[in-house]
Amino acid sequence: MELFYRYQDLAPQLVPLDYTSCPDVKVPYELIGTMPELKDNPFRLRIAQVFSEDGDGHMTLNNFLDMFSVMSEMAPRDLKAYYAFKIYDFNNDDYICMWDLEQTVTKLTRGELSAEEVSLVCEKVLDEADGDHDGRLSLEDFQNMILRAPDFLSTFHIRI
Amino acid sequence: MLSDDQVNEIIINVENVPPGVQNHRSSNLSVPAKSGVNSSFGMVSSVSGIDVKDPHVYSRRNDRKAKQLLRFSPLNESFSQTHHSPDLVDMDTPCTSHESIQGRQKLIASLIPMASRDRIKAIRNQPRTMEEKRKLRRMVDREKSKQSRRIFELNCCTQCLNSISLAYRRCKNILSELLNSISLWQKTLKIIGGKFGTSVLSYFNFLRWLLKFNIFSFIVTFSFITIPQFTVGGNNALQFTGLEFFTGAGYFTDTVMYYGFYTNSTIRHQSGGASYDMQLAYIFTVAACLVICFFSLLFSMARYFRNNFINPHIYSRGIAKLIFCWDFTITHEKAVKLKQKNLSTEIRENLSEILQENIKLTLSQQLTHLSVHLVAWVVSTGVAIACCVAVYYLAENNLEFLKSHQNPGAVLLLPFVVSCINLAVPRFYSMFGLVEHFEVPRQEVYVLLIRNIFLKISIIGILCYYWLHNVALAGEECWETLIGQEIYRLLLMDFVFSLADSFLGEFLRRIIGMQFITSLGLQEFDIARNVLELIYAQTLVWIGTFFCPLLPFIQMITLFIMFYVKNISLMMNFQPPSKAWRASQMMTFFIFLLFFPSFTGVLCTLAITIWRLKPSADCGPFRGLPFFIHSIYSWIDTLSKSPSYLWVVWIYRNLIGSVHFFFILTLIVLIITYLYWQITEGRKIMIRLLHEQIINEGKDKMFLIEKLTKLQDTERRANPSSLTLERTDVEEPAPLHSREHEAAHDLRFRRSVQENSPKA
After folding, report:
1. Could you tell me the residue ranges of all domains in chain A?
2. Region Disordered: which residues (chain B) (predicted)?
3. What is the mean pLDDT of chain B?
4. A108, B326: Cβ pair inside 8 Å?
5. CA end-to-end span of chain A
């Protein structure tokens, strides 16, 4: 229930304390993005979009619970890999293509790398991870690569 | 930290609300005035579980959905009360309604025969939102109750069992919530993780884990050995001076702290009351502590190995890992910016390494590198051996030195020298890194670790040899207490040096880095060195518990203080690490180190003590016996005289004491190991073949898609006037991909459920 109180704290005037009548309440993205766990994360917009109902970043209580349940320590690896894949898939076409990779790298390095370095990095990533050589990463490629990175479970984790 | 169990609890609690009230009104984009219908296609759309939020395609797909509604009305009957908005409306199921219905029914069918715990696990692992999972569970429960209505007779037992298991699960949840709330240092660890990342956090987690070991050992030894000893107190005639805290001698010699104070009698309070044999209690308590530590280490090691196996074949350059394993636990703005900068630097380094990879080294360069490595190894081993020899000679001559110098503080010389060696030599080893060149940067860390652990273990080894060989046989009275005091002094000196290092050394380094030589900047937390120090201290504690039963208590206090000191020093004097540190692989390696040289060495030392050494004649619980182990022999002898305990004697004589039993056991274990090894080899071959198959299928897919587009081109050229054909043609290739991989997704999720069920 601690999560519910955190959710309520974000927008006390919107979220009623009594959820038995199941109101249709959505906390807008701007408030979610101010949470201390998320406010400096470069992917906070994508995280909110992936877990929200309509992909616009505004989350209901269920979406909120979903998000923290997947990002908790106990979530199984496959579930985390699936949602990580969706977070990195910026254009929502179920593949991480070159453009998605470029967006990811830009967000990660915040303009420190030049454009050609970024494209070189994306090429190398595709070289390493693309198993079926179709020029983009499918969910299986991503999961395969995550298998070789045992740190993933501990880094893809938001403490609350 | 919210566990999934707790989240499930929340689900359970919310579900207990009357179901008709639980509704999520649909979002503003949903089809208006079709709330009843919304529920059905919400259900249908929950099957493939892929949400593609593509707003401009929404309207088109919605039309198709409206046409399919009528097909789903028979399903509506079973979902009377639940209304559900398409919060994850699947945008890419326009034409796969039949398959999605079938897919969902197959999913439900596969879930029904599972046990309820496995079912809950399988549903939880599905990548759907909570609403959908709740729905799925309700559907499965309904189907199951329909089926089980026919099996009425079993209801009684299964209901009982179900309620028992539910109560048990609730208890477990409450207990885990309680443990989480009183979990030590939760907030501090969160702050450390937020600022410095997962790697530095792993050091503090390791410290906390070792603290748990020590707390447990302390509780066991205190309750079973020390408290009974308090009831049979002796007198302490010595004076108390403040120096005892450092030397451990003097006043403390005659307290419960050391072996020598413990009585060898059988404590009896009332005549004819229960008796408490101190000898047996001592040896069994120490043995129980060690056995539980052994199993706990073994299980942790196995768990880490299973999750994070260090597989040298799968080493890749790791750029993909750098990109996709962003540390989401970092929450401070400055830390995030710093991490981004470090990531860019690391990516650049990685790129330049890749570009240089193709440059092959000439033979002469390879030979130079090899000879440099060889020289470095020879020098490091030589230094370690030289230190060991120095320590041994110092220890030997220490006795005469002590007799000639009456100063009680002179006993601190040996621990001082050992701590200096532990301080200086690892830093000397780090300097080799300037000369040696490693192709793989990870090798450098491992090599440094191996050298350091070799140094530390050999110093402990040589000290143990000295104690067991010289001190024990020298004829001193109460040699066990002497050894206990030595270990206490070593530990304490190590603690003092760590404190001094944190307060003075790191502080000075920060001042130098910030004020004088600003190019150096702040230092980075050297995780390997700090963890090795923890392992070294823990080894000493394990050895010393037999000779000084209060040692776990002292180590507990030490670790507690170290946590806060390191935390403060970290916040003030350090910057976050610049290179990616494979925390989980390193933790596996550290726990392995804790188990293999450290714990097994402790077991060997104690085994030699108990089986080979003669206890001192007039102090301690084993006084007068020829060997320590004779206490057990005499116990077995007394037991064999009483008829009710003959089974214990039988077990001892035929299982523990017999050679044949161990021979057969070893043979069985070797056979099982060999079989598992062969199975692993077979699986590796399987993985390689499957990988090749994936590549081939990818190529097939590309080939077929090219062929299809060529055919469509030729068709279009053949009929240039029919525009409708064009439009459907244009629509075709786009959903082709999506349809293909929806079916693939369906298959995958169905497959994953089926995989989970035999696994579970």
Report:
1. 1-71, 90-159
2. 717-744
3. 75
4. yes
5. 12
